[in-house]
């Protein structure tokens, strides 16, 4: 088998702060093949953006990074140490959630794309502008020659995000990281933008990391999905397996909280009770245990190893869903009248921490 384009091994990121050390990412591992898409899914604060920013070399200097990231066989931190700025822009680029973080409000849209082309590829001004008009057209912006001369505030949110996508794709990157690229737009525009990203990825044989808090967004758009909770990947599987045979109770809960096409339109969705944990000095336990419907006492005492590797399916749980062991644990909680989702353990956990 060919070498993966990107490998991430045992990646951990800590931020020393005045309140203590934030363990934002903890032992993250995944591979990404050329032309494939991996989805990284999890609630707010689970470490998705910090993982992406590590790959993009965008973390503040105070961040303590451990582990190894390689791109096409090269160590990404070495690339950063050598000051190869063009790497991020030509080989690997990123689209952020809010287009205004990437766009300069006082520069015309076309000029901003052209600057990227001139800086990274050395195009002259004329060639850069004509190529940016082509790019605006390719990302579905009507009247690209006119839009090229407009400022970001003259465009709708959806069009602005298309400009950002055009800018990220300008130098034909091999890997695009899209971090919640459609959170700032409405549902109809969201679908159009996600379809556009998908088409461009296929057309250019590009690899993509699609980051979202919404498992519904990852469905049908990723080859593989990694579910993050409190800085760790708690489950990783090919897309089909993840949606049809998930094992981690958190994935299970996420799946229950998204609408499904086959459900009758008034089916109640189950929100996940409780809040994600604090990442400063977390107690030694499964971070999800206090919210988990399956959790037993030992979940509060030991962090489960990543196990159950079946092919590419891995998960970290003592009582996996859709297994006999997990179902027995869930049943024993239900028998005790614990229907609220491990909240009986919440009180114990709070006392213990
Ligand atoms: N520069 C920083 N200094 C201290 N803590 C940070 C820093 N950047 C991120 N964090 C913390 O790291 C944790 C993970 O943050 P991250 O931005 O990766 O979450 P996320 O999964 O992207 O969430 P969201 O869905 O809200 O974007 C959070 O607790 C966040 O507060
Ligand atoms: Mg984020």
Helix content: 25-40%
Mean pLDDT level? 89
Strand content: 15-25%
- What would CATH call the class of the largest domain? Alpha Beta
CATH-defined architecture of the largest domain: 3-Layer(aba) Sandwich
Report Rg: 22 Å
* SS field, number of helical segments: 14
For the record, the count of structural domains works out to: 2
Features:
Rossmann fold, alpha/beta, globular, binds adenosine-5'-triphosphate, 2 domains, binds magnesium ion, four-stranded antiparallel beta sheet, 353 residues
In a few lines, what is going on in this structure?
By secondary structure, the protein is an alpha/beta fold.
SSE diagram, text form:
Elements: E1 6-17, E2 20-32, E3 37-41, H1 48-55, E4 64-71, E5 74-75, H2 76-81, H3 87-91, E6 92-95, H4 99-102, H5 109-121, H6 125-138, H7 144-147, H8 157-169, E7 175-179, H9 187-204, E8 207-212, H10 215-218, E9 224-229, E10 232-238, H11 239-244, H12 249-256, E11 307-310, E12 313-315, H13 324-335, H14 343-352
Parallel strand pairs: 3-8, 3-9, 6-7, 7-8
Antiparallel strand pairs: 1-2, 1-4, 4-5, 9-10, 10-12, 11-12
The structure holds adenosine-5'-triphosphate and magnesium ion (MG).
Magnesium ion binds at residues 48-49, 179.
């Amino acid at each position: 088998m060919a070498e993966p384009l990107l490998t991430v091994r045992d990646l951990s990121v800590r931020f020393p702060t005045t309140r203590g050390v934030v363990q934002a990412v903890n032992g993250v591992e995944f591979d990404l093949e050329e032309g494939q898409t991996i989805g990284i899914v999890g609630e707010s604060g689970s470490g998705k953006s910090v993982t992406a920013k590590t790959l993009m070399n965008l973390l503040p200097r105070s961040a303590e990074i451990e582990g190894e990231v390689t791109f096409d066989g090269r160590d990404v931190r070495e690339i950063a140490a050598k000051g190869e700025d063009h790497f991020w822009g030509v080989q690997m680029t990123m689209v952020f959630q809010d287009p205004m973080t990437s766009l300069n409000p006082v520069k015309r849209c076309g000029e901003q794309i052209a600057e990227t082309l001139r800086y990274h590829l050395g195009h002259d001004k004329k060639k850069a502008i004509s190529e940016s008009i082509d790019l605006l057209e390719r990302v579905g912006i009507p009247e690209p020659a006119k839009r090229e001369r407009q400022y970001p505030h003259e465009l709708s949110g959806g069009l602005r995000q298309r400009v950002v996508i055009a800018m990220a794709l300008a130098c034909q990157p091999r890997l695009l990281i899209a971090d919640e690229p459609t959170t700032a737009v409405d549902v109809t525009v969201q679908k159009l933008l996600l379809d556009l990203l998908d088409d461009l990825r296929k057309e250019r044989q590009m690899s993509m990391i699609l980051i979202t808090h919404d498992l519904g967004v990852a469905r049908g758009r990723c080859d593989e999905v990694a579910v993050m909770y409190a800085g760790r990947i708690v489950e990783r599987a090919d897309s089909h397996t993840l949606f049809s045979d998930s094992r981690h109770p958190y994935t299970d809960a996420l799946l229950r909280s998204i609408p499904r096409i086959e459900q009758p339109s008034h089916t109640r969705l189950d929100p996940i009770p409780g809040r994600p944990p604090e990442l400063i000095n977390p107690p030694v336990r499964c971070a999800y245990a206090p919210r988990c419907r399956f959790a037993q006492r030992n979940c509060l005492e030991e962090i489960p190893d990543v196990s159950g590797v079946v092919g590419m399916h891995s998960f970290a749980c003592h009582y996996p869903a859709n297994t006999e062991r997990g179902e027995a644990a869930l049943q024993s909680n239900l028998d005790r009248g614990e229907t609220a989702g491990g909240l009986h353990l919440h009180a114990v956990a709070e006392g213990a921490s």
